[in-house]
Design a protein that fits this description.
With about 260 residues, the protein is mainly beta. It contains two helices and 21 strands.
């Protein structure tokens, strides 16, 4: 997430000795996507990498020398639930004086090629990006400097953004667009969870969640939604209208749900 990337120091000349399939001793992964047919995409501090054989071999498809995001680190990599070919990723400088531009980027071929969307200079620092559930061209972001007014939506693959409405929290950590339910969104924060059924124009807080929530996932339409927070792991069986605390023995920073076994 955005909080992890901003604390990482930059370097003029990162070590070039390769110690694994996708980077150098100084490199690390910020986001990771797995697709059918053994396609993997990694957003890292130095380069965006793609594998077509389950990770045996990797190709730098962006953020490498001479590429569109040259000198940028990549994070908050997501895919559209309506078309797995449509990806979005955010960038920040990974070296001093990068050739690339800090912006939101999008791919229509599952990460093989990339195009630049809105520039950070034009909208502000984006904390995360999340694909929408209303159309393939819909994407959401959160601009931290604007607080409760920082929730933004784009209907044209991230080229232009508008604000659908104010958030119930001063700051959020992430968002889940509920699969198969256009306009139904969940946001989570240090203050709990809120739900919208009109694309973010109006919000209602979820009363059954206590304390901070910092991760949320679901495997697909009409499947359980899981959330991880200060109290433990929550589960929702009604598309996020209510949550039940199902596990309290530990707190986990990230969750994912299997698409073949929810």
């Amino acid at each position: 997430g955005g909080a992890d990337t901003t604390s990482t120091t930059t370097a003029d000349n990162p070590p070039q000795q390769r110690v694994n399939g996708f980077g150098t001793a100084q490199n690390h992964v910020h986001s990771f996507l797995s697709f059918p047919s053994d396609v993997l995409v990694l957003a890292t501090h130095y380069g965006l990498f793609r594998s077509t054989n389950g990770g045996t071999n990797w190709t730098v498809t962006a953020a490498g020398p001479g590429q569109i995001m040259d000198g940028m680190m990549t994070f908050s990599l997501v895919s559209s639930p309506l078309n797995l070919q449509r990806l979005y990723v955010l960038t920040q400088p990974s070296i001093n004086n990068p050739k690339g531009i800090q912006a939101l980027y999008t791919s229509s071929d599952q990460g093989v090629t990339w195009q630049m969307g809105v520039k950070t200079a034009d909208i502000g620092d984006m904390y995360f990006v999340a694909a929408g559930n209303d159309s393939v061209d819909e994407v959401y972001t959160y601009v931290t400097r604007e607080g409760a007014q920082g929730f933004k939506v784009s209907k044209d693959n991230g080229k232009h953004f508008t604000s659908p409405g104010p958030l119930p929290f001063g700051r959020i950590l992430g968002m889940l667009a509920i699969p198969g339910a256009p306009g139904n969104l969940l946001v989570y924060s240090n203050d709990g969870v809120a739900r919208s059924n009109d694309g973010g124009a109006h919000w209602s807080t979820v009363q059954s969640v206590d304390g901070a929530v910092y991760g949320m996932t679901t495997s697909g339409p009409k499947q359980p939604i899981y959330a991880s927070g200060d109290a433990g792991i929550y589960s929702s069986q009604d598309s996020g209208k209510s949550f039940s605390l199902v596990y309290t023995n530990a707190r986990y920073g990230a969750l994912t749900a299997s698409p073949v076994q929810s």
